[in-house]
Amino acid sequence: MAMDNKKAWLRIIEAFIAILIVASVLIIVMLRNPSQLDRGDEIYEKQRFILKQISLNDSLRGEILINKTINVEKFIESLAPVSWNFTTRVCDFEKICGLLPSFNIEKEIYVDQILITSNLTYFNPRKLKFFVWMK
Fold this sequence. Notes:
This protein is an alpha+beta fold. About 50% of the residues lie in helices and about 20% in strands.
């Protein structure tokens, strides 16, 4: 009977050690790989900053209101990290618009948008969508 008791305790200790080893490996793997969520939060924060800068710029607002994005994209390029690929799309504020079908991207895409309704002389509510993916 005493021998069976020792075997049971050895099994419990072995199981505990195995759990510790598996948990340690999982923790090490998680610490070495930066989280996708952290990167996503960082991208969205930078996107919001860029869109806010666009909304504060009267000439860029005017271009968006008339569906031009050439200078808007140049402005974004000057602020965006070099590791980003991006595109923009101006849409009617009431419509749902996504990435154009010509962009066949097999990567994770981060999207943010801003509503530009008017400038001092012109009222034409438009939505600027900002699509970002990693190079």
